UniProtKB/TrEMBL annotation:
Gene3D superfamilies in the cross-refs: Spore Coat Polysaccharide Biosynthesis Protein SpsA, Chain A
Molecular function GO labels: nucleotidyltransferase activity
Name of this protein: MobA-like NTP transferase domain-containing protein
Top-level lineage group: Bacteria
Leader sequence segment: none
Keywords, comma-separated and alphabetical: Nucleotidyltransferase, Transferase
């Protein structure tokens, strides 16, 4: 990856319903984590990685979130998913399509990552579309998306579970991080647009498009990160767990 030729995309349009009552008046991405909002930490992580072009897709309480982002960094490109109440993350990613230059790295706005994850992925070759995962369970958050690979480490399945389930052979926990090299951007997004038309915008997840791409278009790599040094903040319990992660790892977060 050459971060200077990568568009970073943070998807932060969702309602955050499972985080109520905290999200009743404040977007999920603006929840406080040890003195900084989740989105501030995510922007800092992207900048630490070396990404200069950054797009954030907003939706729920967009005025608040966009004002906050302008204070953080006026160079961030802000895009609103007008249909955020009834759409999944793939539609938010497609909202960012006109602003993508070069390759793209897409993350969810309710995650934050340890900076050592940036250190690890920065110099990866990323010759094809790549998802990132870990073989280890997290003690901080639920891991409810599992990827499965063939013997060569190529994606063969990607599925959502009811909670953190035990892994079987060549299965790993997905960390919601997707990298798409420039030669494959148009093909991936075009497939996403076609599937949105077929399945409906409210049903299509990014993971659905990743799996369809692997089955129909070309290989998808699964890069393994040994330690699950990230937290998804989806519930009040995970919000508290994220704060504990920062408390326990003060020098590794941004």
């Amino acid at each position: 990856m050459n971060p200077k030729h990568v568009t970073g995309i943070i998807l932060a349009a969702g309602l955050g319903s499972r985080l109520l009552p905290y999200t009743a008046m404040t977007p999920k991405a603006m929840q406080d984590l040890a003195g900084q909002t989740i989105i501030r930490r995510m922007v800092a992580w992207m900048r630490y990685l070396g990404i200069e072009r950054l797009v954030v897709v907003t939706g729920y309480l967009s005025n608040k979130l966009e004002a906050h982002l302008r204070e953080i960094d006026p160079n961030i490109i802000l895009v609103k998913n007008e249909g955020f109440e009834n759409t999944q993350r793939m539609v938010s990613l497609l909202c960012a399509k006109p602003y993508i230059q070069g390759s793209f790295l897409v993350l969810d706005g309710d995650y934050f990552y340890d900076k050592k994850v940036a250190d690890e992925i920065r110099d990866l070759p990323h010759d094809c579309i790549t998802v990132h995962a870990t073989p280890k369970p997290s003690s901080y958050c639920i891991q409810d998306v599992i990827v499965k690979t063939d013997l060569e480490g190529k994606l063969t399945d990607l599925s959502k579970t009811a909670g953190t389930e035990a892994l079987h052979e060549r299965e790993y926990y997905f960390n919601s991080m997707l990298f798409c090299p420039e030669p494959f951007v148009d093909g991936f997004l075009t497939l996403g647009e076609e599937l949105v038309k077929d399945l409906g915008h409210g049903r299509l997840h990014i993971e659905d498009v990743v799996l369809a791409y692997a089955n129909q278009c070309g290989p998808v790599d699964v890069w393994l990160i040994d330690e699950p040094a990230w937290v998804e903040v989806d519930t009040p319990q995970e919000l508290e767990a994220a704060r504990n992660f920062i408390k326990n790892n003060p020098n590794s977060t941004i």
